[in-house]
Amino acid sequence: MRPGAANRGEHLAQIGHLAASLAHEIKNPLAGISGAIQVIRDAMKPTEPHRPILDEILRQIGRLDNTVKDLLVFARPKPPRFRKCNVQDVISGALPVWRQQPEIQRVRFEYVNSRALPTIAADENQIEQLLTNLLLNAAQASKAGGLVRLTAAPQPDGIRLSIEDRGHGMDQEVRRRAVEPFFTTKAAHGLGLSICKKIVETHGGALAIKSVVGEGTEVIVDLPRRQPSMEGEVG
Ligand SMILES: Nc1ncnc2c1ncn2[C@@H]1O[C@H](COP(=O)(O)OP(=O)(O)O)[C@@H](O)[C@H]1O
Ligand SMILES: [Mg+2]
User: Fold this and answer.
1) CATH topology of domain 83-230
2) Ligand 1 atom closest to the CA of 133, numbered from 1
3) Long-range contact list for 36-44, CB < 8 A, 24+ apart?
4) Hey, whose CA ends up nearest to atom 11 of ligand 1?
């Protein structure tokens, strides 16, 4: 071990601990604020002039919530809780939330679901977080009105998810470093792709990035149908 490495490890663990407790402290009040604002908004007439302001507050809370979730997962990674997971249902459930996000509202977002997907063994919260991160990246890289397309397709032994954009793309150096924790070319936390990679790996899958500068990016995620620990349980 390099001199000081143990100290650094301890230091990182402390930072992780602090980040996790901060994220927790922020998450609960945020949920309370969001719930209260929804109650006020829903009690308003659709024509009430202040309604759009409340919608905007809710969108920004959604954004904060994503950041806090990312920080929590990074600081205190949880092993996935594998269950029978219908990814189509996960996506249908998340679509309204995604469509609320300011980044997604800037672009033309398409969901292509050609054929029925097999059920896979997965942690549905983690699958939603994975897709949220990839869609936000795609939208953030796109020009206003640019196409962002999510495709879900069955594979011989699992499913393939593809998140495509026609945004600015990545050069080789960015593509190589994109999954490093804290690597960012935006004023952001740079944890998104490292979390995605971790989620995909703990699901026994693979994540590949294809990108051409000026043309766009496609992130392809392959997820297997079964997990060794759940042999025979996923129908
Ligand atoms: N769809 C994409 N198109 C272009 N660049 C991307 C895309 N997704 C990720 N990147 C690059 O990878 C970097 C790291 O992404 P990520 O880990 O999600 O962190 P963040 O989004 O916080 O910067 C981004 O800052 C960006 O440079
Ligand atoms: Mg990101």
Assistant:
1) Heat Shock Protein 90 (3.30.565)
2) 18
3) 37/61
4) 178
pTM assigned to the model: 0.85
Q: Are strands 147-155 and 108-113 parallel, antiparallel or unpaired?
A: parallel
With respect to CATH, is domain 3-75 assigned 3.40.50?
Answer: no
- Residue 170: C-alpha distances to residues 12, 213, 218 (Å): 29, 5, 11
C-alpha 141 – ligand 2 centre gap (Å): 10
- Backbone φ/ψ region at 52: left (φ over 0), alpha (ψ -120 to 50), beta: alpha
Over residues 166-178, mean pLDDT = 97
Cβ of 183 below 6 Å from ligand 1: yes
Q: Is the CB of 159 under 6 A from ligand 1?
A: no
Helix (H) or strand (E) holding 224: strand 216-224
- Using DSSP's 3-state secondary structure scheme, residue 87 falls into helix
Sequence-ordered list of residues with C-beta below 8 angstroms from that of 156, at least 6 positions apart, any chain: none
Ligand 1 neighbourhood includes 221 CB (under 6 angstroms):
no
Q: Which pLDDT value is given to residue 4?
A: 63
Alpha-carbon torsion (75, 134, 183, 144), positive or negative: negative
Contacts of 229 (CB under 8 A, 6+ apart): 82
CA of residue 42 to ligand 1 center, whole Å: 35
- Percent residues over pLDDT 90 in the chain: 70
Backbone angles phi, psi at 33, to 5 degrees: -65, -45
Probe target for ligand 1 pocket from 66, 193, 215, with the most ligand atoms within 8 Å of CB: 193
Q: Which atom of ligand 1 is nearest to the CA of 168?
A: 4
233 alpha carbon to ligand 1 midpoint, in Å? 36
